[in-house]
Amino acid sequence: MSDETRPDATGAHRNEDPHGIDTRIVHVGRDPFANHGIVNPPVHHASTVLFPTLDALVKAAADPTRGVYYGRYGTPITHALEDAYAELAGGARGIALASGKTAILAMLTAFTGAGDHVVVLDNVYEPTRALADQFLGRYGVEVTYVDPMAGAGVADHFRPNTKLLMLEAPGSLTFEVADLPAMIAAAKAAGVRTALDNSWATPLYLKPLAMGVDVVMEAGTKYLVGHSDAMMGVLSATEEAFPALRRAASEIGAPPGPDDCYLALRGLRTLSVRMARHRETGLALARHLAGHDMVRQVLHPALPGCPGHEAFLRDFQGSSGLFAVELQPGSRDRIAAMVDHMALFKMGFSWGGYESLILPADPRRARTATRDRWTGRGPLLRIHAGLEDPADLIADLDAGLARYAAAADA
Ligand SMILES: *Cc1c(COP(=O)(O)O)cnc(C)c1O
Hints:
By secondary structure, the protein is an alpha/beta fold. Helices cover about 35% and strands about 15% of the residues. The protein has helices spanning about 10-15, 20-25, 55-60, 75-90, 100-110, 125-140, 180-190, 200-205, 240-250, 260-270, 270-290, 310-315, 330-340, 390-405; strands at about 95, 115-120, 140-145, 160-170, 195, 215-220, 235, 295-300, 320-325, 355-360, 380-385. Strands 1-7-6-5-4-2-3 form a 7-stranded mixed sheet, with helices on both faces. Helix 8 links the parallel strand 5 (about 195) and strand 6. Helix 4 (about 75-90) runs parallel beside helix 10. Bound molecules: pyridoxal-5'-phosphate.
């Protein structure tokens, strides 16, 4: 996309689009008749970009993120993906980076420097904690972890030098849903910026910027790409917060490759239908498991009993296919008897693809403020509901739980 066709930083054009989100997903970031009528945007592989004159060079250098300037700042397909994400997220502009974790780094560093303090929900994605503790910590930023169920009480942890509140809902592995409006209001009242990891819900099921969050990211690796074949991080922000975020992303300098941007844009076109199926199947599995003898608790935000269920009903437009179950207490051998012989559910990191996944998890590793809550509990399994026939998935889980029940405790 050229200077002229790339949306301006005001985001004003978006408010004028009268179409529903499914329609916009089909058309966003795409201009077939600028490319021989070909439906999908072209991929350019580029590092060097040539300028015909000194004038052109100087003009481009004034804002390297606007046009096509140098490969590290992206190529037209990067810009198409960035614009598409900004449009769906309802932000001023978008940024694509090489992974979700890189996007989190940009969020954490955009508003903080030595001597600052950040507040992070205790149930954030474990690598987010690693970035906060190790990366920020090494550069003189202090971190406090708070109970995700603290609501407006998060304000008790703010200090005069608190610059950022890092949110994620539902929480990684444990799926509690924080009272986001209460936390966002508390942060605003204290002049603290808010950033939110929206990987679970995607812009289809949660609109953090409309709720008052300053910066939102998602691991495009998960539902956006949707086929387990590329790493991607995407970000957007309010017009006011965007320049600092853009600066941090440019300082990090980790662009996604053009082929991966293509895959993310292609994944985006079917996001809505895939999410509807992940949601339906996830709910079917969760409800089935909730009635199973070997299951102590299902941690799915859409099911009553999951902490924050009411906040979920109030603030989210839907659930994705990722949730967890706490089993009746049992040994590692019994877990192995279950997960080593699944027919359909496979073990592996990440999620958001078309295939179903199962992963034993121990939240205590990645909790400080709420570690007690997860001690003395049965084993936790994280489940990603893929696009297979739900009845086949239920049969696979039932057979696995029968193995779990039958195996001897070591
Ligand atoms: C996977 C994940 C990330 C990181 O994404 P990568 O692309 O793997 O770096 C961030 N947040 C959440 C909630 C995730 O699940």
